[in-house]
Structures are given as structure tokens and as C-alpha cells.
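Input/output pair, single chain:
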Amino acid sequence: MKLVISAVNLVEGGTLTVLRDAKRMAADLYPDWTIHVLVHSPGLAGDTRVDELAFPDVKRSWLRRLQFEWFDARALARRLQPDVWLSLQDITARIDVGRQYVYCQNPSPFCTTRVAAAWLDPKFVLFRFLYGYLYGAFIHRNAAVIVQQDWTRRAFVERYGVSRVIVAHPVLPSASIDRPARAPGPPLRFVYPAFPRVFKNFEVVGDALALLERDEGWAGEVVLTIDGTENRYARRIRQRYGHLRSLRFAGLQDRAAMAQLYRHADALLFPSLLETWGLPLSEAKAQGLPILAADLPYARESVGRYGQAAFFDPQDSQDLAARLRALHRGEEGFTPTDMPQPAEPFADGWPALLARILGPARVAIEERAA
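Output:
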């Protein structure tokens, strides 16, 4: 039995983690399968148990990417003859195989909130427009579409009329930081870990702090993991809000430095307008850190069942200022939240997802052999 994992466009960050988690679990749980992994450059899969095929020119341009998905992949599928083809990179390959699946990780076509500084990131604007069409191309060839959250499933069903969408929650981090006991009292230091993309919504934080600094009793601090040099959007944020005494620009953090920021923080602040999942929300939960997050579907689902959370309107700086002020004064606190498990089809982690993907193919093959 053969599985192809197509990930020629994944080279860094969370999407590359998805690839490595997928191939590792497939190799661990299905050692009798031949696994071919299609990557951008040699070594990205990082596992001798899989057959790695590199396509370094695919990221050269969007036209080359589409040529690969809609023409090259077709010839490759004929040569490899896989029983299952799993694409981890949003676009449905135009192939003829027993069963194929597409894992969709870019939520930008479904962004319904206003992104104030979108003009600073033409790529984001293009993705919001282009992905809406690319997602739909050949999408009904898939046995199922895979997404990370239930709100994204509803968006796919409504927009594309697909009948089977699997919600697959990602593997969540486990607690690993020995946080010192926090002194009694309201939270003073909030941390917002995010790379400067326009939908990360740093403006609402700066505007809220500008309001709070008019209050002599405000002694809180928000730490951002940017320094203002990363890109045009970061420079704009530093220019507009660099004068605020309660806003600290810490710069990009490696894993060890980020662990220290979490260790000394009183709460996570997360105002992002758009996320596939929102990993810092899960990291904060793993550390037992209180969470103040955007009141949006992705954040509600990522926070899920948790004992210390609060939400605010991410496009209303006055609302955020009021929540921060009330928390700082001890006038209100963080409360338990709950979120029901998504309806079927649902997979909690890669073992459950692979069982849904590879199990039916195995049964079909065994039935044909019988």
C-alpha cells in the first residue's frame, strides 16, 4: 500500500511542522505502507523511513506551482500509483488515484473582519482574493477536505458545497515551563507573541494603551515580539506607538527566549483577526496562563474548555482598554470557558486523522484482494 504526502510548498514555520508531524505519525503507525513525501528541498522531511522526492523549482512562481499541482502531479501519480494522495498545501491536485485529500491551512479567503493596514501587505490582499478561487478548483475530487476548526468547515461547506469536511485539531503543546508562583493581585504584564503580519492587529493594542496611559493608575505592560525592523507593517507600528511607556518591543524570540517571556508574564493577550488555529493560545493553556483573546470563532475554539479566559472586540480599542483596566484594577477576572467538541467527522490529532484517511483505503484494498 502506498501513501503520497505532497508538501512541495512548505518550507518553514507551522506548516512545515504539520508536514513533519504527518510523515512521522504515518511512518510510526503504518510501517507496512510505502510513503512518498514530496518536498521543496532534500532533507525537509528528515526521516529515512520515507521516500523523499524534492521539487526545488515549484516555489519559483505561482504559475509553476499550479503547473505542478494540475499537470506534473498527474504524471507523478501515474508513476507512483498511490492508494492515497494527501496534499498538505491547500490546492487540490488534478490526479486520478484511489482516494485523495487536501489539508487547507490558509483561512484568508474567509476573513470577514476589516484589516486596517492590508495595503501594507499586497501578498495578503492577493491571497484573500486568489485563494478563494484556488480552493474551489477540483475540490470535489477529494474524498474529504481537512481543516483545523469547525468555523472553517462551515465556511467550506457554505462556499464550495463540499459534502465531507474533516475537522482535525492539531497536536497541542504539553506543559514544559516551570513558571514561578505569581504574586497575589491583578495581572500587570501581558505578552502578545506574533510575527508582524497585517492581520495580527497590533493597532488595537497600541490604541488601547494610548487610552489607558491617560489614567495615572495604569501600571500595566504589554510585550510585543517585534522590534519594528521586520517589515513595513512593523515599522509602521513602531512609528505610531513607540512612544508608549507601557508597550515594550522585545523583538523576535527563539524558543528559549519565548519560554522566558511566558514564564514571567501574567497573561496572554491575543487580538489577531485571523488564524488557522492560534498556537500561542494553546501554548498559554499548556502553561496555565490566563488568556485575553479576540472574540472571534477561531479563538473561542482554540481556547475551548479552559478555566482562565476573557474575550474582547478585536476592532474596538475602547473595549480592549476597558477590559485591561478592569483586570488591572481587579474589578473583573478571567472566567471558565467551554466549547463542545466538533461534530463528526472529527479527528483529535494525527493518529485519529490518519486512521480516517488510510483506514478506508486499507479496507478497500483488502476487499479487492478477497
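The chain has two domains: 2-171+349-369, 189-337. The radius of gyration is 22 Å.
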